[in-house]
Design brief:
The chain is an alpha/beta fold. It folds into three domains: 32-327, TIM Barrel, CATH 3.20.20; 358-567, Glycoside hydrolase family 3 C-terminal domain (Rossmann fold, 3-Layer(aba) Sandwich), CATH 3.40.50; 643-759, Immunoglobulins (Immunoglobulin-like). It is 25% helix and 19% strand. A seven-stranded mixed β-sheet has the order 2-3-4-5-6-8-11. The protein has a six-stranded mixed β-sheet with strand order 12-19-18-17-13-14. Helix 4 packs parallel to helix 5 (168-184) and helix 13 crosses helix 17. It is globular, with a radius of gyration of 25 Å.
Length: 760
């Protein structure tokens, strides 16, 4: 089979991430790095700055509307127009983030971040970003607020569904693909939330206390990759503090690292309501205040006029904004929104990502795919079979032209001859958002509300007469939401009790989990023959799921984070270092922009900052479970297929490598099944005998491979030796520890049948 091979490694080797992305040389005079492309108009930009008044300059440094900032009207330089992301071009909004009610602003709802991460695919991340950027252009937008790319530190994280994974190598590859794809479409990417926004609890005030080594090796890697290799044009500092300083005024993050070490040439824009001072933000690396002008307005002008702030600092900010403005072609108002935003090509991208993201966690007795020659009655049970996921919660949402639910997708794909019944089984839980549907009896009042007798009886009756039960479990976007972390990872509204009752009358159960983050699936795993993780999978998610369940395609997603046996096993909870003491009555965003949720609340910027001590250091996610030998339910990188794969014949191109070398590991993989299938091959490194402290093993490279039935392919993965360095805090720089490296290859972090040993 002829196919394009794309190899995914860490950011230092993104040029080697895909063989067909290798640069073809550097023409004379051409920019030598993605960031340098932003400086090609600096001569003209400097002339413009010299012609501007201080007032004109400062007018560019704050919001004009809730989703725009000022250009230079006198000189004909257009405003910069923003659109929220990261998984759809958000509908047009006004004050309070309330929709304006347009009929032309529907956009494709793409699978959310954790679903994209489950594809483990640079190609799909690129396509995703490119499709999103294309739609933004049709809407007349210059910047999409995405990708959202923070590390998944907490299983309960409210924005787990928006972010990617628990691993920096996987995050880095996805972030680069997404960023390049979007900017190749002509829309600037805005990396968020920089940095260490790993919890929603107290996100506006929490102070992350972290050592430099884990910050560099775990939490900053993807941002560094997206800046240096992806060429990101914009960065959004996070709400939280890091080692004592807010993201919007963190000199170490914004000036020393981002602009200094990484060479970032673009603009920074605060999260909405995330600016806290004039002098701190001005000196700490912020360019644009969103929203308002209370800091970067008259107060900034006064600071310059009083001699407290050199005007050259304002000039630097204007220059960085204009670099982006010159790099992104403005779309005139009369040219925007003139064609349908979401078109078939973008909807196909959404389907492709969804289809490759679905993870088959368990499949005892090969109950999947569904054999429609034998299965004639299917009971679809669970509200999540019919619930939509495009919108909900506090923040990111999508106004989508349509959304295929799991039940719709199954009915559309299964054809005649199979009877499908449906029972919701449990109520909808909306938590603090329940006011939107006040008085509706189908709303559960608590997360652990007991099963409704009538709904449970209907579900049991449906299950009793079925050949197969498809039980739809999971959460929703009111449980997993911006602004709040989950209370726990237990399945809500007594779903464990419900599946246990269903199993009493019908043991033939396949559970489909619809969620953005991990759930406690111990009961589900016990009561189900098969378990499928289906994510919040975009407007074509129902069709993609049906195609997997029916065997039209083989499942090929891999878990982007560990599913612990229980929440208390995960590092932040095992060590007791999750700062969950809520110190405010309002969220930093909701209190300022979503009064419809929290009431007329003013956010107190002087609130106490609780400290979150990242005492687990490098041991995030699977690094913790492996190093501490803590058992898990489903490991990082896990995902089954309808095919089986055989790994063999591992070898390295050399036995010994120097600091500037690239380790090349080759091996054979064979599809032993009867249908074409994808496998994500994964390469981890272990350092026996190391003197420096390391996790048990770390992901360093991966690749998605498509194999026909019975086919064998030789795969080569590359790891630059530079990616084996560690951050030496005493020397304040990267260092390489020489010695023996074990290279482990297989289909998940827990299934690594091949091993090679090399020397550094």
């Amino acid at each position: 089979m002829n196919q394009t091979i794309r190899t995914a490694t860490l950011f230092m080797s993104i040029a080697a991430v895909t063989s067909c992305q290798t640069p073809q040389g550097n023409p004379a005079g051409a920019p030598r790095s993605p960031q340098e492309k932003l400086t090609v108009n600096d001569k003209k930009i400097n002339e413009i700055i010299a012609d501007m008044s201080l007032e004109e300059k400062v007018e560019m440094l704050h919001s004009k509307t809730i989703m725009s900032s000022e250009g230079v009207p006198r000189l004909g330089i257009p405003d910069i127009k923003y659109a929220d992301g990261p998984f759809a071009v958000r509908e047009e909004i006004g004050d309070g983030f309330r929709p304006l009610g347009w009929t032309t602003d529907s956009a494709t709802y793409y699978p959310t971040g954790s679903a994209l991460a489950a594809t483990w695919s640079y190609d799909l991340a690129y396509d995703y970003g490119n499709a999103l950027g294309t739609e933004a252009r049709r809407r007349g937008k210059d910047i999409i607020l995405g990708p959202a790319m923070n590390i998944q530190r907490l299983p309960i994280g409210g924005r787990t569904y928006e972010y990617f994974s628990e691993d920096p190598a996987l995050n880095a590859v996805l972030a680069v693909g997404y960023t390049k794809g979007m900017q190749d479409a002509g829309t600037a990417a805005c990396l968020k939330h920089y940095a260490l926004n790993n919890q929603e609890t107290n996100r506006g005030s929490v102070d992350v206390i972290i050592a430099e080594r884990p910050m560099r090796e775990i939490y900053l890697k993807a941002f560094e990759a997206a800046v240096k290799e992806g060429g990101a044009m914009s960065v959004m500092p996070a709400y939280n503090k890091v080692n004592g300083y807010y993201g919007s005024e963190n000199n170490h993050l914004n000036n020393v690292i981002l602009r200094g070490e990484w060479g970032f040439k673009g603009m920074t824009v605060s999260d909405w309501g995330g600016t806290h001072s004039t002098m701190g933000a001005a000196l700490g690396g912020l360019d644009v205040q969103m929203t308002g002008d209370n800091y970067f307005g008259p107060a900034l002008i006064d600071s310059v006029r009083a001699g407290k702030l050199n005007e050259s600092i304002v000039d630097d900010k204007v220059r960085e904004i204009l670099r982006l403005r010159f790099a992104i072609e403005p779309i005139a108002d009369d040219k925007a929104n003139t064609v349908k935003i979401s078109q078939k090509e973008q909807q196909q991208v959404a389907y492709n990502v969804a289809a490759k993201s679905i993870v088959l966690l368990k499949n005892e007795g090969a109950v999947l795919p569904i054999n429609t020659a034998k299965v004639k009655k299917i009971a679809v049970i669970g509200l999540n079979a019919t619930a939509t996921t495009a919108s909900g919660g506090m923040g990111a949402g999508a106004k989508t032209p349509y959304e295929i639910t799991p039940l719709q997708g199954l009915k559309n794909r299964i054809g005649k001859g199979v009877e499908i019944s449906y029972a919701p089984a449990y109520k909808h839980y909306m938590g603090m958002f329940a006011g939107y549907r006040a008085g509706t009896t189908e709303i559960a009042q608590t997360l652990d509300e007991a099963p409704d007798a009538k709904l449970l009886a209907e579900a049991i009756a449906a299950a009793r007469g079925a050949d197969l039960v498809l039980f739809f479990a999971g959460t929703n976007k009111f449980i997993e939401s911006e602004g709040i972390d989950r209370e726990n990872i237990l399945l809500p509204v007594s779903q464990d009790i419900i599946i246990a009752r269903l199993a009493e009358v019908n043991p033939n159960i396949v559970t489909v989990v619809v969620s953005g983050g991990p759930c406690d699936l111990r009961v589900v795993d016990e009561k189900s023959n098969a378990v499928v993780q289906a994510w919040w999978n975009g407007l074509e998610g129902g069709h993609a799921l049906a195609d997997v369940l029916l065997g039209n395609i083989s499942p090929s997603g891999k878990l982007p984070f560990t599913y612990p046996l229980k929440l208390e096993d995960s590092p932040a909870f095992a060590l007791g270092n999750f700062s969950n003491d809520v110190v405010t009555d309002g969220d930093v965003f909701a209190a300022q922009f979503r009064h419809d949720i929290v009431g007329e609340t003013e956010y107190d910027e002087n609130v106490r900052s609780p400290k979150a001590y990242y005492s687990e250091g490098l041991l995030v996610g699977y690094r913790w479970f492996d190093t501490k030998n803590v058992p898990v339910l489903y490991p990082f990188g896990h995902g089954l297929s309808y095919a089986s794969f055989e790994y063999a014949n591992i070898k390295s191109d050399k036995n010994k490598y120097g600091a500037d070398d690239v380790i090349k590991i080759s091996f054979d993989i064979t599809n032993k099944g009867v249908m074409e299938a994808d496998e994500v091959v994964q390469l981890y490194v272990r350092r026996p005998g190391a003197k420096v402290e390391w996790p048990e093993k770390e992901l360093k490279a991966f690749q998605r491979v498509t194999l026909g039935a019975g086919n064998t392919q030789t795969v080569t993965l590359e790891v630059p030796v530079a990616e084996l360095r560690y951050w030496d805090e005493a020397a304040n720089g990267w260092k390489l520890e020489n010695g023996t490296i074990e290279v482990l290859v297989g289909g998940s972090s827990a299934t690594l049948p091949l091993k090679a040993t090399v020397t550094i």
